[in-house]
């Protein structure tokens, strides 16, 4: 096995083991309801941290386009609209905004 394959295998093992160990033992642990709520909110927090910086950098000239999309998507999510519909409606709204903006 050459050096590159050894590095790839080593990286795979180093990445896999820290993910495997908690998955094996998580069922045996009992968390308080408050801590469980905290753990359940982590994916949403991570997603927000990934999305928010991009909202204002979507279009350099029309900085508010990303903000409009975020507001529309957040409003639809608040109303508990299904995720697929949120994406489709937000894209339609942004296409409409992009179509109207050149006239102003």
Description:
The protein has 104 residues and is mostly helical. Helices cover 76% and strands 0% of the residues. The protein has 4 helices and no strands. It has helices at 3-25, 33-55, 64-78, 83-100. The longest helix has 23 residues, at 3-25. The chain is flat. The mean pLDDT is 90.
Topology:
Layout: H1 3-25, H2 33-55, H3 64-78, H4 83-100
Helix pairs in contact: 3-4
Task: For the structure shown, list the relevant keywords.
single chain; 104 residues; 76% helix; flat
Give a quick precis of the structure.
The chain is an all-alpha fold. The chain is built from four helices and no strands.
Helix/sheet category: mainly alpha
Helix percentage: over 70%
Q: How many angstroms does the end-to-end distance come to?
A: 63 Å
Mean pLDDT: 90
| Uncertain stretches | none
Helical run tally: 4
Radius of gyration over alpha carbons?
Answer: 21 Å
Shape: flat
User: Which sheet architecture does the biggest sheet show?
Assistant: none
**Residue fraction in strands:** under 5%
**H/E topology pattern:** HHHH
Report the strand count. 0
